[in-house]
């Protein structure tokens, strides 16, 4: 089995730039605080899964001032998302990892439902499948795992729509790949999603203003 690398995509959790669709409900500071907490959870669960190296693919680049003062746990590797739309950035990371002989689990910091157990199961399934995917309730996906690279999975995808997971799975079918699909999880992107925010994402004192019963 190929070694597996978890690559987490994240923006710097800054007021006015992070989780902007939640600003009407939480304000700029509250949205940024929640973004930081979800990033912490994503990194924590990735390390807890212990399936391989964990890499934070950052926007802007790791040495940018925007990341100053934001703690990144020891053992987390850092990389730059660089330019392009989400598909171009994900494709670049996936190709890089796969071409050096690793399998990859691509994820983000928007899904506190995605636990170490989910990551471990995805890694286990990737041993006997070409790809794994956890769909999201909004039609996207919080995790995509790959043992091989094909650009069709990232090109001309209508990102941030309810057709992302469906179209990605269709393209995997066209490739005749063996695909494992996990349970549906929930991203936290819109104010209505806050009703589904787990306690683990709200228990820090500086997030006391986040109401998970919105």
What does this structure look like?
The chain has 214 residues and is an alpha/beta fold. The protein has one domain: Spore Coat Polysaccharide Biosynthesis Protein SpsA, Chain A (Alpha-Beta Complex). It contains four helices and seven strands. A seven-stranded mixed beta sheet has the order 3-2-1-4-6-5-7, sandwiched between helices. The chain is globular. The model is unreliable at 204-214 (pLDDT under 50).
Helix/strand layout:
Layout: E1 4-11, H1 23-49, E2 54-59, E3 77-80, H2 86-99, E4 103-107, H3 116-126, E5 131-134, E6 143-146, H4 164-174, E7 179-181
Parallel strand pairs: 1-2, 1-4, 2-3, 5-7
Antiparallel strand pairs: 4-6, 5-6
Keywords:
Spore Coat Polysaccharide Biosynthesis Protein SpsA, Chain A, 4 helices, disordered C terminus
Order of helices and strands: EHEEHEHEEHE
Percentage of residues in helical conformation: 25-40%
Structural class comes to alpha/beta
Total domain count: 1
- CATH top level? Alpha Beta
Radius of gyration: 16 Å
Shape: globular
| DSSP strand content | 15-25%
Provide the CATH topology: Spore Coat Polysaccharide Biosynthesis Protein SpsA, Chain A
Largest sheet: 7 strands, mixed
The average pLDDT score comes to: 92
The CATH H-level homologous superfamily: Spore Coat Polysaccharide Biosynthesis Protein SpsA, Chain A
Number of helices: 4
């Amino acid at each position: 089995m190929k070694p597996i690398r978890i690559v987490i995509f994240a923006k710097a959790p800054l007021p006015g730039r992070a989780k902007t669709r939640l600003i009407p409900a939480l304000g700029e500071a509250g949205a940024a605080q929640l973004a930081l907490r979800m990033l912490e959870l994503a990194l924590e669960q990735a390390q807890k899964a212990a399936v391989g190296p964990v890499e934070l693919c950052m926007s802007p680049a790791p040495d940018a001032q925007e990341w100053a003062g934001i703690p990144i746990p020891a053992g987390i590797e850092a990389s730059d998302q660089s330019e392009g739309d989400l598909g171009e950035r994900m494709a670049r990371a996936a190709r890089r990892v796969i071409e050096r002989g690793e399998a990859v689990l691509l994820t983000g910091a928007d899904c506190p439902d995605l636990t170490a157990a989910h990551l471990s199961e995805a890694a286990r399934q990737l041993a006997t499948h070409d790809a794994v995917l956890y769909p999201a309730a909004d039609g996207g996906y919080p995790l995509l795992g790959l043992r091989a690279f094909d650009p069709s999975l990232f090109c001309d995808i209508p990102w941030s729509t309810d057709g992302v997971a469906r179209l990605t799975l269709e393209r995997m079918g066209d490739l005749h790949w063996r695909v494992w699909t996990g349970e549906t999880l929930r991203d936290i992107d819109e104010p209505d999603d806050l009703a589904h925010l787990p306690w683990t994402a709200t228990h820090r004192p500086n997030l006391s203003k986040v109401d998970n019963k919105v």
